């Protein structure tokens, strides 16, 4: 089966970007959220990247 990146329907706080990335890579979503928060604080471009991801990554299809 082909692995696809989707917004998480079950593990989400805002749009499901971090939950979807965590599911795709098999990580804990808390670690992805901490990494994203560090990106936002240190680099400043993390928020813009999150918005772009939320718009581009498709929603998880219902089975």
UniProtKB/TrEMBL annotation:
- Keywords of the record: Cell membrane, Membrane, Transmembrane, Transmembrane helix
- Where do the TM regions start and end? 34-57
The answer to whether UniProt assigns keyword Transmembrane helix to this entry is: yes
Residues annotated as domain Phage shock protein PspC N-terminal? 3-59
The answer to whether keyword Transmembrane helix applies is yes
Topology term for the membrane: Single-pass membrane protein
Where would you find this protein in the cell?
A: Cell membrane
State any GO CC term: plasma membrane
Where does the UniProt entry say this protein principally localizes? membrane
Q: Which InterPro entries match?
A: Phageshock_PspC_N, PspC
Checking PANTHER family in the record gives: PHAGE SHOCK PROTEIN C (PTHR33885)
* Name the UniProt record assigns to this protein: PspC domain-containing protein
Q: Which organism is it from?
A: Clostridium diolis
